[in-house]
Design goal:
Layout lengths: L10 H40 L3 E15 L7 E12 L2 E5 L14 H15 L3 E5 L7 E2 L6 H30 L22 E3 L2 E6 L2 E6 L5 H27 L5 H22 L1 E8 L2 E8 L2 E8 L4 E14 L2 E12 L4 E3 L4 E2 L1 H15 L4
InterPro entries: DUF3592
Pfam family, one: DUF3592
Keywords: Membrane, Transmembrane, Transmembrane helix
């Protein structure tokens, strides 16, 4: 089996990515299992159990169509009835109409069933019911499966389950992936024949400054990658809307599922939009390292350390992705501090050549060692 691009993640990032993938997959799987346990298995099990019930005649005492307002104006309908029947010498009363209890607005089944029962009641005609011979207190008027309702539940369970299983599979694959090789390090003195600055390395610009260099990440970087992430967030939001629509059709769907998917969609889209609308400046010179991040031109975060606190600069291999059959390595330039901390000098830097070029140029022109 060919190695996946995620195999190249360093161990800490690989474990973190596996946890995040698993956390994203769990809500999908939870909702799929909830649908199977409440919307697919119970009606199928009841249908199989009721197939052995015996027919009988009952007298309708009441019949109606109960309409409850939905959360968004789409009402829920439920055919209700009360009927009396006799088994042997005993009389029983029941209110069960079909296999599933409760209202919905899937199709016209509830309205048509109510219309039929009201007709029987008005004409004073007996209605056929199905009685459990082992327990005569159990009876129902309609023992047929609601295929429209069942297919709706099964379809949602299939889609959500497939997405959740895919995410959990990749999380497990990522967790078990072999360790990547060692990261990049600058060897010797590089950049002797390098063109003058400013120069672009992937999505990063390098500018010459008196006594050092400035690393600059502009707005709108990694546009294609972040558009994909925004599309993923839109998928989560779409799932939240779909669950909301299902909630309109059935009152028993917990709102927590729509909330979780909506929050995940907002978080995924917002994080990518945040990256697209922020810039990063890192100055490295004899006065130390100063990092500033701006959001739409407004100061957002800054960090400054004197040169004596800087231990070394490091180029960290974050991950390897694949685009149109071509593998793309992603790196991050870090400053390791003597107190054990780190300062990110760049966000993700695309391409090994660009990363190596930036790393060696920063080492040569800033005076810091790698």
């Amino acid at each position: 089996m060919p190695a996946l691009a995620i195999d190249n993640l360093p161990l800490p990032y690989r474990r973190a990515a596996a946890w995040w993938l698993g956390l994203f997959g769990l809500p999908f799987m939870a909702f799929a299992f909830w649908l199977l346990l409440t919307g697919v298995w119970p009606p199928v099990g009841e249908w199989a159990r009721m197939s052995r019930w015996q027919p009988a005649e009952a007298t309708l005492l009441a019949a109606d169509l109960t309409v409850r307002p939905g959360s968004r104006g789409d009402p829920s309908r439920e055919a209700t009835a009360t009927y009396r029947y006799t088994v042997g010498e005993a009389q029983y009363t029941s209110q069960r109409v079909g296999i599933s209890r409760g209202g919905d607005n899937v199709g016209r089944h509830q309205a048509e069933m109510a219309r039929t029962l009201v007709g029987y009641l008005q004409r004073g005609e007996p209605v056929r019911i199905w009685v459990n011979p082992a327990n005569p207190t159990e009876a129902a008027i309609d023992r047929e499966l609601r295929w429209d309702l069942l297919s709706l539940h099964a379809g949602f369970a299939l889609v959500f389950g497939a997405i959740g299983m895919g995410l959990l599979f990749f999380a497990l694959r990522l967790h078990r992936a072999p360790l990547p090789g060692p990261g990049l390090h600058a060897k010797g003195k590089a950049g002797e024949n390098a063109p003058g600055l400013p120069r672009r390395y992937g999505n990063v610009w390098l500018h010459q400054m008196p006594g050092g260099v400035r690393v600059h990440l502009p707005y709108g970087r990694d546009l294609q990658r972040h558009i994909g992430a925004i599309a993923g967030g839109a998928l989560f939001l779409g799932m939240a809307l779909a669950i909301g629509k299902l909630m309109e059709r059935e009152e028993v769907v917990p709102a927590i599922f729509a909330v979780v998917f909506g929050l995940l969609g907002v978080a995924l889209s917002a994080s990518s939009l945040f990256t697209l609308t922020t810039s990063l400046h890192a100055n490295l010179d004899e006065r130390g390292i100063r990092v500033r991040r701006r959001f739409l031109g407004l100061p957002l975060h800054s960090h400054q350390v004197p040169p004596g606190m800087v231990k070394r600069l490091e180029l960290l291999h974050e991950q390897t992705t694949e685009h149109r059959g071509r593998e793309i390595a992603w790196y991050r330039l870090l400053a390791q501090l003597k107190n054990g901390g780190t300062i990110a000098l760049t966000d993700s830097l695309e391409g090994e050549d660009a990363a190596r070029g930036l790393y060696t140029q920063v080492l040569e022109r800033s005076g810091y060692r790698g």
